[in-house]
From TrEMBL:
Record bears the keyword Amino-acid biosynthesis: yes
Protein name according to UniProt: 3-dehydroquinate synthase
Record keywords, A-Z: Amino-acid biosynthesis, Aromatic amino acid biosynthesis
Keyword Transport attached: no
Lineage: Eukaryota, Viridiplantae, Chlorophyta, core chlorophytes, Trebouxiophyceae
Length: 383
């Protein structure tokens, strides 16, 4: 993806600056907004209610202790699912066929032994670390890279499962949710569904021609500092109206006057909408530390990022109006500054201070009517 980002296609970047930008990202194991591998979850429970909820949520594998084989056989008559038994250090099917191993981590020695045997492992490896969770998962995720085995981590809640599935960014292949609470099952299933939908989703931008640029007075502008580094071509989708959001580029480009800040997006005034995960929108004024936003790139790929902090300051604003092919005009307000850039075709990012009538930018067209950030089917007139 970065091969398209040359000095000639980025008017704001010399080859030296672009090289420094890309070097900031060289440590990342995957390209920006690249689709992540599919994750799965298993469930271990004593309650039939949880079994039913898990089946309805798409879970097809349930794990039982060896002494609960009679329960597994009984429940297997109620619905079609794969039953696995934990038999010492072996993970077996009801017919006795071994499909993996169980790694119980209670000490540093246990963890070291598991990591040492990771490369030669095959099938499933079930990690059960009752006291330490994150560090063993990270160490084993690193050790299992390149292994034919799939690493599955035991978790006691949906939140813990998410930590395992995202450990060292790549995460474990799956999680075994050990719970008697059906709400935990639904929460984990919902998160996994959203993650899969995000990975498969590709936004379709419309090309719009800048029709008017008008410097305005002062307003309260929000800078969004993310807990993630953004690559060239990435930014946040922002607009004065939810029906048309522009891709506002990050401040990853350095200049003679300001250092590169690849975690920051100078997003716009407090009233502006910003795209959130799950097809929702929110107001920039509502973002705070820990909020989730949707990062997009010029190719339409998306990913979720955490907000580290926001800064609201009085700054001069500029009105940008752009017309799409159907003749409709769309507008947004931005800070009037060289560090605020809009993304357009060919991954070209242009500072608002350099925009000219006729310049092409990308807009994401979507439903305009919103209720608490969710698209609704109703008439709304905004201008």
């Amino acid at each position: 993806m970065h091969s398209a980002l040359t000095a000639s296609s980025h008017p704001f970047a010399t080859r030296k600056v672009l090289s420094s930008i890309l070097s900031l990202r060289s440590w990342r194991p995957r390209a920006a907004c690249q689709a992540a591998p599919q994750k799965f979850f298993w469930v271990q429970t004593d309650k039939q209610e949880v079994l039913t909820t898990a089946l309805e949520s798409g879970c097809s594998t349930f794990v039982f202790d060896a002494e609960a084989v009679s329960v597994a056989e009984k429940w297997a008559k109620l619905a079609a699912f794969q039953a696995l038994l934990i038999n010492g250090a072996a993970l077996i099917k009801l017919d006795g066929m071994q499909v993996g191993t169980v790694v119980n981590v209670g000490s540093g020695g246990d963890l070291a032994a598991a990591c040492a045997g990771a490369v030669a492992s095959t099938g499933m490896t079930l990690l059960d670390a009752r006291d330490w969770r994150i560090i063993p998962a990270e160490n084993l995720v690193a050790a299992f890279q390149g292994s034919a085995a799939k690493l599955v981590a035991v978790a006691g809640s949906a939140a813990d499962a998410r930590v395992m599935l995202e450990a060292l960014e790549a995460g474990t292949a799956g999680a075994l949710l050990r719970t008697n609470d059906p709400r935990q099952v639904r929460e984990l299933a919902t998160w996994l569904e959203g993650r899969a939908a995000e990975a498969a989703r590709r936004l379709v931008f419309e090309r719009a021609a800048v029709a008017r640029i008008k410097p305005l007075g002062m307003g309260d502008r929000v800078c969004v500092d993310l807990a993630s580094l953004l690559a060239p071509g990435e930014g946040l989708l922002v607009g004065s109206f939810a029906r048309a959001l522009a891709l506002v580029h990050s401040e990853c480009a350095a200049s003679a006057y300001i250092a590169s800040r690849p975690f920051r997006v100078n997003a716009g005034p407090v009233h502006a909408y910003v795209a959130l995960p799950g097809g929702r929108t929110g107001y920039l004024a509502e973002l705070r530390s820990g909020s989730e936003v949707m990062v997009a790139d010029a190719g339409g790929r998306t990913r979720t990022a955490l907000v580290g902090r926001t800064k609201c300051e009085r700054r001069p604003l500029v009105l940008v109006e752009a017309a799409t092919a159907d003749g409709e005009r769309h507008s947004l307000l931005l800070q009037n500054a060289e560090t605020v850039r809009l993304v357009g075709p060919c991954w070209r990012a242009v500072a608002v201070s350099e925009l000219r009538e006729g310049d092409a930018i990308f807009l994401l067209r979507q439903a305009g009517a919103r209720h608490t950030g969710i698209a609704v089917q109703e008439f709304v007139l905004e201008k």
